């Protein structure tokens, strides 16, 4: 819906229409709804379980699990911003989203996305200190330090999301209000603007590169030092043990950066709307589901904690009955 304006060929948009997967047959959309609903529930339950277990189990109180808890909380927020609306467009054909709703969705998408980039870098630094300075690890990564590092990871999302969202939604929009995506991402919304967006696009490109590259360089530096330290360990068993403590994080980092980089840094000529939707699904829907699975299956401490938690729950239930 839009309200015509007197000047120019632009309109005051009051709502947008998310095209989502409307080009697909109804039967396929129903199957996608069931698949995404299952992924959504697994994501919420898996990440919630990680949060509860790392809070309750006394064996999981190290800094690594403090940051893992932050990551799980972030993934829940990321999913809540995008997936419920996407499910509505698939099953109820509720494709409309208000102007404010679209801006809010974009704001929190940027916020959680930027926060995840920096939090993954913080987790890499934590692994660097744990492996390269194990004796000083408890002193360096004390409660105060880990809280400051977590706050520093979350904070950059606020200015980036505020500037980019406010700037983009201050532009005049054309009569066409159809967003060719399943959520309000910047590029498809920007295509609806009836104004010169060159300055904004330069800012967006530079901002995206900085947000991706700064944490990525920090991660590369951390793991370069980690690899050098692991190679100095004389025994194969010691090397394997040291590497196993950071393998889960490496896998999560790879999934996030590969999928997001393919989405935002591909040449426009090779970046059709449909292919971008598929790539966007990988880091907005699939990766948040895989993160708790990766940390649960590849980390013996988490597996043992989950086992203890379930055994306590079953024991309490047996006692009650």
Task: Describe the protein in words.
Belongs to the G-protein coupled receptor 1 family. The chain crosses the membrane at residues 28-55, 67-87, 107-128, 149-169, 202-221, 242-258, 278-297. This protein has 321 residues and is mainly α. The protein has 11 helices and 6 strands. α8 runs antiparallel to α9.
What would a concise description of this structure say?
The protein is mainly α and 321 residues long.
Topology readout:
Elements: E1 2-4, E2 10-13, E3 15-18, H1 26-56, H2 63-91, E4 96-98, H3 99-132, H4 137-140, H5 143-154, H6 157-168, E5 173-174, E6 178-179, H7 186-190, H8 198-231, H9 236-264, H10 273-297, H11 300-320
Parallel strand pairs: 3-6
Antiparallel strand pairs: 1-2, 2-5, 3-4
Membrane topology: Multi-pass membrane protein
Transmembrane segments: 28-55, 67-87, 107-128, 149-169, 202-221, 242-258, 278-297
Organism: Myodes glareolus (Bank vole)
**N→C terminal distance:** 57 Å
Principal-axes shape call: globular
Estimated share of beta-strand residues: 5-15%
Spatial extent as radius of gyration: 22 Å
| Helical content (DSSP H or I, runs of 4+) | over 70%
Q: Total strand count, please?
A: 6
Assembly state of the chains shown: single chain
Q: Return residue spans where pLDDT drops below 50 for at least 5 consecutive residues.
A: 1-8
**SSE series:** EEEHHEHHHHEEHHHHH
**Strand arrangement in the largest pleated sheet:** 1-2-5
Mean pLDDT, to the nearest integer, reads: 86
Q: Helix/strand/pairing class, anyone?
A: mainly alpha
């Amino acid at each position: 819906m839009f309200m015509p304006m007197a000047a120019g060929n632009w309109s005051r948009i009051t709502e947008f229409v998310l095209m989502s997967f409307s080009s697909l047959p109804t039967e396929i959309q129903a199957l996608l709804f069931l698949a995404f609903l299952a992924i959504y529930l697994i994501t919420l339950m898996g990440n919630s379980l990680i949060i509860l277990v790392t809070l309750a189990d006394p064996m999981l109180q190290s800094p690594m699990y403090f940051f893992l808890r932050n990551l799980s909380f972030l993934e829940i927020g990321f999913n809540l911003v995008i997936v419920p609306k996407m499910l509505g467009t698939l099953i109820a054909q509720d494709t409309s989203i208000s102007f404010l709703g679209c801006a809010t969705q974009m704001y929190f998408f940027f916020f959680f996305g930027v926060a995840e980039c920096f939090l993954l870098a913080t987790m890499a630094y934590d692994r660097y200190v744990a492996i390269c300075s194990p004796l000083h690890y408890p002193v360096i990564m004390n409660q105060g330090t880990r809280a400051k590092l977590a706050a520093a990871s979350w904070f950059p999302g606020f200015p980036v999301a505020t500037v980019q969202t406010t700037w983009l939604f201050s532009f005049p929009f054309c009569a066409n209000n159809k967003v060719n995506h399943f959520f309000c991402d910047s590029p498809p919304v920007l295509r609806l603007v009836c104004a010169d967006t060159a300055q904004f696009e330069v800012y967006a490109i530079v901002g995206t590169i900085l947000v991706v590259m700064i944490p990525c360089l920090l991660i590369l530096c951390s793991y370069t030092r980690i690899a050098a330290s692991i190679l100095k360990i004389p025994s194969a068993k010691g090397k394997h043990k040291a590497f196993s403590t950071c393998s889960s994080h490496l896998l999560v980092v790879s999934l996030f950066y590969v999928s997001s980089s393919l989405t935002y840094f591909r040449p426009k000529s090779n970046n059709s709307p449909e292919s971008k939707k598929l790539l966007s699904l990988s880091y907005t829907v699939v990766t948040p589901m895989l993160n708790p699975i990766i940390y649960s299956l590849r980390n013996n401490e988490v597996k043992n904690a989950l086992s203890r938690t379930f055994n306590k729950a079953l024991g309490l239930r047996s006692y009650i009955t």
